[in-house]
Amino acid sequence: MPYANNQGVRIHYRLEGEGPPLVLQHGYTQNLEHWYQCGYVDALKARYRLVLIDARGHGASDKPHERAAYAWPVGAMDVLAVLDALGIRQALYWGYSMGGAIGFGALTIAPERFIAVVAGGAAADAFNIGDRLQHVDGSDPEAFVAAFESIMNAPIPPEIRAKILASDTRALAAAAQNRPSLIDQLSRIATPCFLYAGDQDFAFSRAQATASQIPNAKFEVLPGLTHPHAFVRSDLALPHVLGFLKSVERRQPNNGMEPTR
C-alpha cells in the first residue's frame, strides 16, 4: 500500500484514473472505500487522476489513540504531505463533511496548491465536535455511535452503522477535534469553491452561510437529503459537482490543470 509520512504518521492513499489530479477526502468515520461503494470513482476516473486519501485514524492510515495526534490542522497537513509525496504541485479537491473542513483548512494554509475546492455537507465556521464527544473514548463502540448519532440529529443508516462499529472507535473518538472558524481567512481567498448540502442535513444552514462569505463560492441544495444520504446519493451530487469542475477547467490556461510530475 502506498503511504505518505507526516511527522511519523503514515497516511494511506490510492490512485485511480487519468487526467488532472483530483483529491477525494472522505468524511468522519468513513474511509476511501466509500468513494468506490457509492459510485464516485467509476464516475470520475475516466476524466481525473483521483487521489483518494484515508484520513489519519481511518481506513488504512495510522490510528493513534492520543487526541494530540489529531490537533487541528493536522488533517490538512496530511493532504499536503500526500500531494508532496506524489509530486503534485496543484490539484482539484473534493471533500465531504470532515473532508470538506479539511479542504478549507488546506486552502487557508496553501491556497496556491488548489485550483478549486468542493465541499459537501461542510462548513468553515468553528465546530466543537471534540467537546461534544469528550465523554466517550471509543472503548465502547455502541456508546460512541450513539453519541455521534446525537450530533448528526438523525439516525445512522444500518449499513453505515455496521461499518463504524467495525472500525477502531478509539481512534475515531481521538480524531474528534474542535476546530476554529476559517471564515475570515477564506474571505480573502479567490479560489473557486463549490458547496452543497442536503436540506435535511444538520450542517445545512452553516454550509449555506459559509458559501455566502467566500468571495468565489457557489452553493447547491440537495432537497430532502440528510447528512449521510447526501453522500450516498452520488447520482444527485455528481452532476452539480462535475458541472462546476468543468467550468473551472474551461477557465484554466491551456484548458487543463497542473500536471503531475
Descriptive account of the structure:
By secondary structure, the protein is α/β, with parallel strands linked by helices. The chain has a single domain (3-255), classed as Rossmann fold. The chain has 12 helices and 8 strands. An 8-stranded mixed beta sheet has the order 1-2-4-3-5-6-7-8, with helices on both faces. The chain starts with a strand and ends in an 11-residue tail after the last helix. 47% of the residues are buried.
Briefly characterize the structure.
The chain is 39% helix and 18% strand. The chain is of the alpha/beta class and 261 residues long.
Top-tier CATH class: Alpha Beta
Backbone CA Rg: 17 Å
Classify the secondary structure makeup into a structural class: alpha/beta
What portion of residues belong to β-strands? Answer: 15-25%
**Tally of separate domains:** 1
User: Low-confidence parts lasting 5 or more residues at pLDDT below 50?
Assistant: 255-261
Tell me the distance between the termini.
20 Å
The helix count comes to 12
Provide the CATH architecture. Answer: 3-Layer(aba) Sandwich
CATH superfamily: Alpha/Beta hydrolase fold, catalytic domain
Question: How would you write the strand order of the largest sheet?
Answer: 1-2-4-3-5-6-7-8
Helix amount: 25-40%
Shape: globular
Number of strands: 8
Instruction: Outline the biggest β-sheet.
Output: 8 strands, mixed
CATH topology: Rossmann fold
The pLDDT mean sits at: 94
Order of helices and strands: EEEHHEHEHEHHHHHEHEHH
Assembly annotation: single chain
Question: What is this structure's SSE topology?
Answer:
Blueprint: E1 3-6, E2 9-16, E3 21-25, H1 33-37, H2 40-44, E4 49-53, H3 74-86, E5 91-96, H4 98-109, E6 114-120, H5 129-132, H6 141-152, H7 158-165, H8 169-175, H9 183-186, E7 193-198, H10 204-213, E8 217-222, H11 227-232, H12 234-250
Parallel strand pairs: 3-4, 3-5, 5-6, 6-7, 7-8
Antiparallel strand pairs: 1-2, 2-4
Helix pairs in contact: 3-4
